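I'm curious: can you give me some protein's one-letter sequence along with its backbone structure tokens because I've never seen that pairing?
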Amino acid sequence: MNFRLDLNVIEATPSESRFALVLHNLSETNIQNWQLTFSASRYVLPTSVSHGTLKQIGSLCIFETGEPLNANDHLYLEFSHPTKPFSMHDEGIGDACLLITTEDGVKAVPVETTPINLGTQTPERLPLILPEPKAINLIPQPKALVVKQGQFALTDDIAIQSDSDISKPAARWLADEMSQHLRREVTIKQEGQIRLVQDRNLKPEHYRVSVTLQGVTISASNEAGFAHGVATVLQLLPTQASHRHYFDYALPCVEVEDHPRFGYRGMMLDCARHFHPVSRVKNLVNQLARFKFNHFHWHLTDDEGWRIQIDAYPELTEIGAWRGPFESIEPQYTSLSKIHGGFYTKDEIRDVIAFAAERGITVVPEIDIPGHCRAAIKSLPQLLVEDADTSAYRSIQNYNDNVLNPGLKGTYTFLETVLKEVCELFPAPYVHIGADEVPEGVWVDSPACQALMKTHGYKDFKDLQGHLLRHCEDFLSTKGKQMFGWEEAVFGDKVSKDTVIFSWLNEQSGVDCIRNGYNVVLQPGHETYLDMAQDYSACEPGTDWACKVPLEKAYHYEPFANSTVTTEEFGKVKGIQCALWCEMTNTQSRFEYMIFPRLLAIAEVCWSAKEQRDWADFQARLSGQLQYLDRLGINYRR
């Protein structure tokens, strides 16, 4: 490239760091009328910029001086971030671009970025060192496993028998997976050596797997139980052929009795910050099912992108699904010199839902409101913007125009219209409405909001937020849906105790919600966020705004281990969820690296009884599971 951008730490204190930014013109041409755009992971103090002007929109910084940048010369700029010191290379410049104006128009020119110079030494990256695999490597650890003598040979005539409609979805999944694994077609027939048998005496989600010399029996009472039984059988398949002939595979003879610890076992995927194609989503869902998760939480909307087709408002995907240097939504994070985006059509979403259902997974849609709504607001300003609102605020992601206005009639029209289509599209009995990170200062100078507060006697912005969320909860209830929300959904004390709260900031907030009468799903960032770095080296991919989350730390997460929670209070914990936020995840390789192998650790935390979890034993079983990931070519952290 003809341009390069370097970032160096020149001074750091516990609460503020100063940086030097150097832009090199490596070409033989002087440039006039230019702007430098670059993505920064944290807020730049406007008063700290040494010269020129710098404007920040989200992660996008726009800098200009009005001066030329001559050939083989450089620009030097200093600024400060009012946060803790950086410790990761990923906290540096994500991407950069020059916008150069000529008589032919504005041209976006990519700029090479180099790793940030942190000015300090950091530890070397530690490799993943595991013991030899066990003979049987089931993850999560089942409730009871008895290994018997012998093996059941998977001969060329192997077939699957499904004895009820309830077991047919899982049977189709098993047939598909075995066909791919054995590289020959495995079909469902009236009689087969692998039988799925309904046993009404088993509780929901419970299952039994019996492998004998003659065949395999999977027993369950409902669809979920059959899916879990199939997942166990799939993990019993050998990664490599056990005999000389490639097609001579066999299953070990075992008896498995199993059931989950928690009813809700989920993973959230952020598809708004970076768009993930349907194939990537379905591959993830397949892995979630294999490790016995039962909910896929789909984060479909945020400031940086709207990813779901809404028939009533085509602008949401025509405008809100795309960002770039010449789009209504400015570029963010990566790809600053070109367009990034995409959305899921309703048919594609139906396909994902059906694919997940066959594997025992419920797809939970999230429409994040009232904050994190910039893509929607930019798409529908005539409906969602109050011209007289002069409120000044800055969200945690550095936006000043990303919050819906509870005082506008258009806001309620928009929400009811969107939620109606979402309810019609998703069969799940619940909808997640976000509710997180609404900043201080919002709505203060909105005439519409001030009038609403006066009418209802509200005191602050949390009352307004609660007012809007309670409206959504009441509307969803008319559609037969239960509302889910992040822990901030309780602000203003307006939503009912029927709303399930997802606790993410820390466990204490979960305890507080439980003691206030709410059921909770625990998703603490310090243990379950897969966007956190997995190691303490500066070159490890990820971030650490919560903390580093190595594999061992993820595995040892135990809900309320350090809290005095009663048995009754613990009963209000409906489950555990991990999450991958994708501000920095924009490729298949990085996607897989951030998820694996920590997903397997969280799977065992969600499923296996506390007294059955053993770190040393898990490492050996993980060693065996990594052979399966190798077979698929998954880029896990090694």
